[in-house]
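Budget justification, computational time. The allocation requested in the original proposal was used primarily to generate structure tokens for proteins on the priority list. As evidence of use, we reproduce two of the resulting records. The first is shown immediately below.
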Amino acid sequence: MANARYTELRASGKLPSPDGTALELIRLADDPGATIEAITAVIEADPATAARVLEYVNSSFAGLWRRVSSVQTAVTLVGMVVVQSIALSVQFMTRATRDCKGFDDGFFWSDSLARAVACRHLCGQGQAVSSDQAFTCALLSQIGRLAFAAAYPQTYGEMLREVDPADPEALTALEREVFEIDHDALAALLMADWHLPEGFREAVRNQSSPLSRDLDQRYPNLTLATMLNLSATVAPLLTTTGVSRGCVRRFLGEFGRVGLSPERVEPLFETIATDWRQMGSVFSVRTRKPLTIGELYAHGR
């Protein structure tokens, strides 16, 4: 039923659809004969995407030991999947869903960026996915919500007003009831159309499931789905004012379950907060100076 609804949505032409640079990169990703030179030429023809790729690579967040001025070098360093995801994100960030009352595009991308930065820091050595890929997967992990807002602006706006923003499971349940598909499944199907890796799609599809929280693994050997799930507990602490103590407890509890004590979590959170603000400048996404974990707990409701 989910695939049938997706086919219907795709035929309507209302889903977020890449064009220009992003579309050409998708074509090249599906071409086994595509060269670095061809990919570079496409990016260099789009100043906005080229600038974002270079800013990302040259940020202290990326951790490179030298400055990169060549798009071709940047593509070689971070890979096709990352530049394709950045191109998609840049394109969708410029499209506002003004018809969907209650859906705040600025907050959506601020939250997505918070998840992405957190996910990158959670990505340890020896993973099947690189830290750069973890970042870009998380950056697009909530794209299903944006798709619902674009395709069903009035209905989705009413749904957003009906549920508590602090209860994402309630929204997911309502999406399934109304649309017969939730935003995680929708995001995974969109990623398949965009030829993003199967690992991305499976992680996004399972990012909210109990399984992703209950895997018997220890940091840093986490699956990508688990990292996305954990990142979702970090984002509200960065983006939202007046968070509840319950939100902070959940954050500390989830990280404790993967082997991180509160003493280790607090400096990790501070690093994520600093990098979130830095990457906000790179992607032109609004950020704020969040409270520390101690301050959040002390001031929480």
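The second record produced under the same allocation is shown here.
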Amino acid sequence: MSKKPTQNIHEYLAEFEDIPGTRVYTAARARKGYHINQFAMSLMKAENRERFKADEKAYLDEWDISDEGKEALLARDYNRLLDLGGNVYFLAKLFSTDGLSFAEAVSTMTEYTFPEYREMMLNGGRSPEGNRSIKGGY
């Protein structure tokens, strides 16, 4: 029986890095964004949401989050937070704290307004043209 050739997991995951608008949540991203995600999860408790809303900067200063991460959180720059290892499902706690629906918050990560984003999704989502592997020419 012949053995199937294996590919290094890091090489395999790196193949996804060239897909426009796509960030694969890897173990490396999870480690990088650990404190951002723990902060976001803290917002599940009403008392933490109240403290955060009362003074966002002071609350963030209690966390071991980089200055870049704090800036991205304060600016609600979700794409930058994803790049810094934020997980969209954890960041949803921040969306909710801000009174945003998941779809409304995600629309800010695109070039669309929320009504345009909603319409695009109702019409089947974004076209795969130009949204696949760059090196693959798709």
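A brief technical remark on that second record: Residues 25-98 form a domain with the Protocatechuate 4,5-dioxygenase; Chain A fold (CATH 1.10.700.10).
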